[in-house]
Amino acid sequence: MADKKIFVNLPVKDLKRSVHFFTTLGFTFDPRFTDENATCVVVSDHIFVMLLVEDYFRTFTKKELCDATTRTEAILALSAGSREEVDDMVGRALSAGGKASNDPMDEGGMYGWGFQDPDGHLWEVVSMGESETAPR
Hints:
It is built from three helices and nine strands, in the order βαβββαβαββββ. By secondary structure, the protein is of the alpha+beta class.
């Protein structure tokens, strides 16, 4: 069976603002899936985040969109290689206009910290100790 990929789709109010935000965090974009309605954030070889302008996002669902600035829709967790990488990414997110979504959490072998992107989507960056193999 071929390797699976995941495409997370998120609605955004201002695509240019979102591209600037995720560029500041060090991510790149796949130009094949980028236009005035959407862009594809490359998280890894198998993980992508599609940022879709809200009106375009609505063409994919009959449900109302969640206002992520006031409600939690999901928490997107990213792995990091170390505690320092966690702090660095969250620090860059805060400097780029994001907001802290929680205080840093140190659970022994696992360290994490979270932020909200400019549209209120929740992101958690986690470093797991050598003995940890899966998030909680």
